[in-house]
């Protein structure tokens, strides 16, 4: 499995709404109103950008994660113990705690706190810090929800402000910030967008039920994102794999390997990290998608929001097929092994 060697290029992540991720392992199906005796549980530093950075760092990649947190906040200590380079803007409110109820069959229930509010001065300081670290980087990943006080179009503002750094920009968010990003115009469109099926439906108005059953509906919906300026789309679909589409017309599909799912928390973040790592290594689109799906699957096989090692990723075979060739190249040959465009499934946030 392709990964990005150290020195191949820097990844910078922004987590505007970081968290301590507390995973509570249930002995069985949750019985409301009862007393539950938990199996051993864990707490890990989290937030989508932090998860991406942890996965990149575990593969030996050059990464810096930017976040708002006081110097004595527990998340800062946890990230230092992991040896993860970070840059922080101090805030007076402790980083939130998110709770995951994990059942033995892999079912997870998320209970997310709202996060520390960010005023205009703090957002400005974060934007400046992000810009400084993005200069000379290969990728900047803007990931996760926005905290109270942040305007929905803040990611759009950040994309515009980062253009002069030369870094490529990936965005993975949802709901109002995602809608505002795509409504802001082509100059705010990221180089890479990572929606799931639910988010693609929100962005395009195509019913999620249609995306679950109709290959052409998926391709048409993704195509509208390219029309709005997005260069690449990584559509993650949980147990149904993923799709990588490029504005040049190239589309690739991947089916995930079989794994015993323990927790889907952070799987989508690891998928993004896998794609970025493969890009750092100079991989072709099909191999970038293969790496994304392998990383997401390896993450789902781990407890809590743990991130996989390159060895765990390399052990998972992922079949990738060309759905459509880039414009100006020959069409892929027909084959009974061609993987259809995946549908249904969900990348759990």
Automatic annotation (TrEMBL):
One of its GO terms (molecular function) is phosphofructokinase activity. Residues 322-349 are annotated as: Disordered. InterPro entries: Carboh/pur_kinase_PfkB_CS (IPR002173), PfkB_dom (IPR011611), Ribo/fructo_kinase (IPR002139), Ribokinase-like (IPR029056), Tagatose/fructose_Pkinase (IPR017583). It comes from the Bacteria. It holds the Pfam family PfkB. Belongs to the carbohydrate kinase PfkB family. This is Hexose kinase.
